């Protein structure tokens, strides 16, 4: 749960920066958000969430 909230916040900030500085039209950002919402509700959603959690565990296990 914490990983998904962090990912949502990070991606939200990224979309805001694209909209603000790279002149991403607001309608394109809205379509991307709608696509992400529908993708999460599909049968691929749990697999994507598991992949993100595995990636977070891998990154947290790195000793730099």
Which residues sit in consecutive blocks of at least 5 with pLDDT less than 50?
none
Cα-to-Cα separation, first versus last residue: 25 Å
**What profile does the largest beta sheet have?**
none
**Alpha plus pi helix count:** 3
Approximately what portion of the residues adopt beta-strand conformation? under 5%
Mean pLDDT: 84
Summarize the helix and strand pattern as letters.
HHH
Count the E strands: 0
Helix proportion = over 70%
Structural category: mainly alpha
Oligomeric composition of the shown chains:
single chain
Shape: flat
The radius of gyration is 14 Å
Organism: Actinoplanes hulinensis
Keywords: Membrane, Transmembrane, Transmembrane helix
Transmembrane segments: 6-22, 29-49
Protein name: DUF2304 domain-containing protein
Summarize the topology.
Blueprint: H1 2-21, H2 26-41, H3 45-61
What does it look like?
This is DUF2304 domain-containing protein. Keywords: Membrane, Transmembrane, Transmembrane helix. The chain is mainly α and 64 residues long. 83% of the residues lie in helices and 0% in strands. The protein is flat, with a radius of gyration of 14 Å. The two termini are 25 Å apart. The model has no long low-confidence stretch (mean pLDDT 84).
Could you list some keywords that capture this structure?
single chain; 64 residues; mainly alpha; 83% helix
Short description:
This protein is mostly helical and 64 residues long. The protein has helices spanning 2-21, 26-41, 45-61.
């Amino acid at each position: 749960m914490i990983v998904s909230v962090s990912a949502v916040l990070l991606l939200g900030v990224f979309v805001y920066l694209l909209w603000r500085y790279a002149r991403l039209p607001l309608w394109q950002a809205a379509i991307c958000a709608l696509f992400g919402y529908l993708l999460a509700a599909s049968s691929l959603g749990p697999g994507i969430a598991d992949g993100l959690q595995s990636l977070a565990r891998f990154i947290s296990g790195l000793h730099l």
